[in-house]
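Example A, followed by Example B.
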Amino acid sequence: MERSGLLAAGNFIVDRFKIIDYYPREEMLASILRETSGNGGGPYNILKDLAKMGAGFPLAAAGLLGDDETGDSIVADCEAHGIDTTGLSRTPAAPTSYTDAFTVESTGRRTFFHQRGANSLLAPAHFDFSASSMRVFYLGYFMLLETLDRVDVSGRTGASRVLEAARAAGMVTVADMVSIEHADFVRAARASLPYLDWFILNEVEAGKLVGRSLRVAGDGGGIDWAGCGEAALLLVGFGVRCGVVIHFVEGAVAAVADGEVYGQGSVRLPAGFIRGATGAGDAFAAGFIHGVHEGFPVPVCLRQAVSAAAMCLSDPTTSEGLGPLADCLALGEEYGFAPAGLRAD
């Protein structure tokens, strides 16, 4: 079977953004001044990003939605962007997952209330790879999929079994995670690493997994480039087949199975360019996954990733800032890239 395409699974969320006049104390009232909604969750964001970037391969979604209007809106939005929704199951047992994000107009400070909903019920039984011809399988996010994150008596998680099945079916497996407090954070995440080809995460999550901060103490909190490279190599050593990518505001590093470590600085954006950071991490992942699908060298994948993340920052919504991949790359070329703190800038 000649494989082509991305099957992205896991968290499908609707983000509801509300601008308020102030954040109230308990039992007090605040006014909602404006509100919008948009896509949320790794697979939903990445699929929509790739559609807007003009990916020349099939895109398909897999996950669990509630039997409600919010679920209907996700299906309609995916279909409007050419994303196959056959793998999106529905359940009456829980609502479609959503997040209410409240932003105080005068300060920009945000508070989030998340309904895990149907995502928490997503289980290995919802996946069937027997007829799939997709080349890449993405799962996200670890730590926000309650059933799949649960560690069983054998030390395995549902996520690890789903990834094992996807790889056995012939797909390249990719996953990432979310920054959250979780009682089994390290054990649950590490259970999946032997079944991953690529693991994409940020420096906070990587630091939690390796037990050290990846920011430089006493240096304004700057990134520890060498430390990130070491952490990525350590995570590769836990069984990741191809490589581990750690991204952060300053850029990214990638460590691959042969021990090579690559660095890529972020785009030097001018003052006033950034209108919002929501979704930038998933845009980064979309750029990298595109390169993985196309078989590009790691440095090219990283350049695509930071360029897509930069373009995402041009709009306060999750995906509306994205445009064709050529435009993302042109943005990077126009403004240039910050130097990476590794030998491969």
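Example B, a separate protein, is given below in the same form.
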Amino acid sequence: MNTSADPHAGLFDLKGHGTNVKTEIIAGVTTFMTMAYIIFVNVLILSVAIGQDDETRLSLATATCLSAAFASLIMGLWANYPIGLAPGMGINSFFVLTCTAMGVPWQTTLGAVFWAGVFFIILSFFRVREAILSAVPSSLKSAIAAGIGLLIAYIGLRLGGFLAAAPAASGDLTQLGPMHTTPAALSLWVAVFGLIVTGTLLAWRVTGAILWGIILATVFHHLLTWGITGATPHIDIIAAPSFTLFGKLDIWGAWTLGAIEAMLIFFYIDLFDTVGTLIGVAKEGNLLDEKGELPRANRALLSDAIGSVFGAIMGTSTVTSYIESTAGIATGGRTGLTAVTVGVLFALAAFFGPLAGLVPGSATAPALIIVGIMMMRQVRELDWNDWPHLLAAFIVILIIPFTNAIHTGIAFGFIAFPVLMLLSGRGRQVSALIYILGALFLARYLWLPIPTEPESPEPEAPAAEVVSQG
């Protein structure tokens, strides 16, 4: 990768990154289409705590779109990375739990999100998050990328109806999805069609294969629905934005006992989800420099911090970098122009959001499965004869998808790695920061309760567009 600061390279240095405007825009559209579910799912989840009337839902959609647009534009124009940002899945469920189970008013909870973002900004100025990013050993960086790949593929399998929740009495977590006469079966056949089409296009090296797969699967979905039910999609084209939630956060009320606890959890989850996502995206896009570090990491980390502050003011939960950005990278995106494209499309979605409803989750599922496969290539970087590195790496790779949380996989990797290195007599090769973080993570899991999130809905429900995010 070319990391030089050529004054004649232009804003994005497309030539230096081996890309062009067409490729970047296609990558941006691809990333947006794999992220667009958040417009609807975030509204569905947050409305449980904030309000379920039409005006509140519309304002939540506006806040989601504009916070995603704002943060993605910062990432593209300032950090120059092909990473889309939006309110995070998983952490929005905890937002609702804070309001319902802990009894914290939603305005106060927005204040907690605001302060967590402010703390991120402060930490970024002291380069604490950048130091954490740099301290992660190369084996764990590869493991985080591969683990995220498995998580993305799992999300795609659930979203496409390949997997469904197993009955509680069976003791299993998932089972094969239904294949006959149900809406979930329809999703499955759309996903199978999209997977075959996208795989074929990739085999023929067709430019924008993943995006074409999403488009053709969407057309197939509507044709299939029309053929089975006779129903044609009816959808409004324009929905004017609403700003009734703007500025409703309670900044100073966030310093009450229950809200402070929520603030710390928002801070913890987003800190390591963002670090993990940046590592995974950077590894997949070959964005790391010759030292294995991410240039302009501080700008990338500040982008989601500033986005979270802006999102809280607009009326939504924590904004974070999206692992779905790897779909755009797989299409060829390498610069901030991809993120700018994502940002512009989210801004337009604030006015034309209903159009995104034409793309079913089952049409984007093949893209996630294929991107997950691509990210598993990172296991080739592991030294299969170095057992401390290898064992710690596979702990990360397995825990990320099985717990549905990037930050949990990173935590156990940081606990296991220094212990294994010490026991093998190589403790001096481990960064002091890794020891500190490992000890803090160990203390956290031994003495602090683990917040539980609501069970993710099944693919036929609107909120099943994703399982967890980070």
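On Example B: The two ends are 26 Å apart (CA to CA).
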